[in-house]
Amino acid sequence: MSMIEFHNVEKYYGKFHALTDINLTIEKGETVVLIGPSGSGKSTLIRTINGLESINSGQLVVNGFDLASKKTNMNKIRREVGMVFQHFNLYNNKSVLENIMLAPRVVLGRKDDENKKVAMELLDLVGLADKAESMPSMLSGGQKQRIAIARSLAMHPKCILFDEPTSALDPEMIDDVLNVMKKIAKDSSMTMVVVTHEMGFAREVGDRVIFMDEGQILEDDQAKEFFDGQPSNERARQFLSKIIKH
Amino acid sequence: MINIIASHGSELLSGLGQTVLCSVIALFFSLIIGSMFAIFEVLPSKVLHTIGRIYVEVVRNIPLLVVTMFFYIVIPQYVASINGFVAGTIGLTIYTSAFIAETVRAGIQSVSGGQMEAARSNGMTYWQAMRYIVLPQAFKIVIPPLGNQFINLVKNSSVLAFVAGFDLMYVGNDIASTSFDTINSYLVVGVMYLIITMPLSYYMRYLEKRTNRGAA
Ligand SMILES: Nc1ncnc2c1ncn2[C@@H]1O[C@H](COP(=O)(O)OP(=O)(O)OP(=O)(O)O)[C@@H](O)[C@H]1O
Ligand SMILES: [Mg+2]
């Protein structure tokens, strides 16, 4: 069974057609990079995967759950599908450690000893063990984002969605975050869907690159083909040449 | 002023007592009712949202005296016989709850939507996200404006004087009309209100400072 399957998915915001006939299958363990111009629907697409946005028609199956069905319990999907946001969204009223431990405790009922052990291991993984007791407001953007990643990982998800995780960061912090993401991507069991224009990252750990424009998927290639050959779609080619020049 | 205090001390104290009692009771219930309607207003449910909106808009746009008179006249006629103190306290509670609902709603909505989204994406239910993430942050934001509501509540409790609630204002009216020393009577009453509200005001300022430091 695939991790994520879109079949003829349509999404409207009022009259605005945000996603048009999306067909997409993402296998377990794959790292998929989603690119496209601003307003093309990348955020909308990735947010439908954990039900932050609902779909209007078509079929969307994530981790075996049918998201189009009203009976599906979204909380169950979200336990196994984490999300990392452009603006981090750390819990402002909680320390770093509590940010990581809260959901495992209240959602999974993980006991404190175990919970803290997992959290400290993850802080080590993201290189911020010394920040365990800090409040989010005392961290830099790059540090916040690494904590947000640790917070997602603490739920032991099968899949993590990243919506432009480095685009709100100062350039010198981007690599710290990308390096953590690369570590995760190399774990072959984790499925990752990443909206990013960091083509170095896409080239190094991406399995596939998807190009969207105006709510449609125009290109869906193996990363190798995408970068070494040429995207067959004209707009994708233009877009790629623009972001690589920068 | 000294004369008034000397000759009417016990009445004034009992009036002060009624005012404090009414304020504390009204505070307690208006916090509960107000928070409930505030939560109605932020819930995804359209029906509850509408109920909350209507309640707030209707109640806070009617003068306090009218709300209070309504309870003073309607309840004894159709429900149960209650005295002016009870009617006045109910009126004050209902009236204040609408303002508290507004304050708490604004507090909840000023917590960035990203906090709720992050908590939901982390697997928490709506209520877990509210309880652990959104409401604690809203509470901090809401303390100073709520403090103002409490102070208004104490002052507004003078409405009891109109429905024979035997509060401070009522006693003040009484003394003024019997002693003919109107100016001094109301001066004493004013000072006694200050005795309640000034400490509240300072305490709120202290709380505000403390939470600002804590939130760093
Ligand atoms: N809640 C909403 N209500 C109405 N329109 C929306 C909403 N969210 C997004 N849109 C519109 O849907 C389109 C796609 O938005 P989306 O955020 O998915 O784009 P994006 O590809 O992520 O862009 P960016 O690179 O700027 O983040 C845009 O035209 C946007 O204005
Ligand atoms: Mg976006």
TrEMBL record, chain A:
GO molecular function, one term: ABC-type amino acid transporter activity
Segments forming domain ABC transporter: 4-239
Superkingdom to which the source organism belongs: Bacteria
InterPro entries attached to this UniProt entry: AAA+_ATPase, ABC_ATPase_HisP-typ, ABC_transporter-like_ATP-bd, ABC_transporter-like_CS, MetN_ABC_transporter-like, P-loop_NTPase
Database matches in Pfam families: ABC_tran
Keywords: ATP-binding, Nucleotide-binding, Transport
Family: Belongs to the ABC transporter superfamily.
Protein name per Swiss-Prot or TrEMBL: Amino acid ABC transporter ATP-binding protein
Automatic annotation (TrEMBL), chain B:
Main location (coarse class): membrane
Keyword S-adenosyl-L-methionine in record: no
Sequence intervals crossing the membrane: 16-42, 54-75, 81-101, 150-171, 183-203
Entry annotated with the keyword Protein transport: no
GO cellular component: ATP-binding cassette (ABC) transporter complex
Protein name: ABC transporter permease subunit
Keywords: Amino-acid transport, Cell membrane, Membrane, Transmembrane, Transmembrane helix, Transport
